[in-house]
Amino acid sequence: MRLLRTQARRMLAAPLVLEGLETLRDPSARADALAPTVRRLAGRNAWLPDDPELLARVQGAAGVAGGALLATGRAPRVACALLAAQSVPTLVAHLREFRDGTPETRGALRRTAVRDLSLLGALVLAATEPRHRPSVPGDRGASTRLPRRTPARTALPGIRFRR
């Protein structure tokens, strides 16, 4: 079961790393998609930068870093939380494009939005998965039992104990 979870995390990380690398190489396509959302949020919050290309680069770096952490098994919960947080702005942008798009482009936009939603759901599942699960449901009690202790009297025969 542990091998299956490890491989599933690697499979989940692969598209996120590839998408992050693609965004780092050419952030303009992602920045164009994020521009309306970034400008709207930056207008409401003064502390947010009004630069969609900067957000696209940050998302690409977060995708590569989080995907690498997830694939190697280092801090998988933190990696999943990072990847889920970085995917939300893109998901919002895809849903906005879907709503404002033409009927011809809606099919491709729907597929992209559904894929992003399913990846977000998988990341949330991986982030909230229990840390150590027993491999056999009936074996739960056996793995948590403490070994039986021997009384100090028998373990240390030369020492007198009061009763």
UniProtKB/TrEMBL annotation:
It holds the Pfam family DoxX. Its main location: membrane. This is DoxX family membrane protein. It comes from the Bacteria. Residues 130-163 are annotated as: Disordered. It is a multi-pass membrane protein. Keywords: Membrane, Transmembrane, Transmembrane helix. It is found in: Membrane.
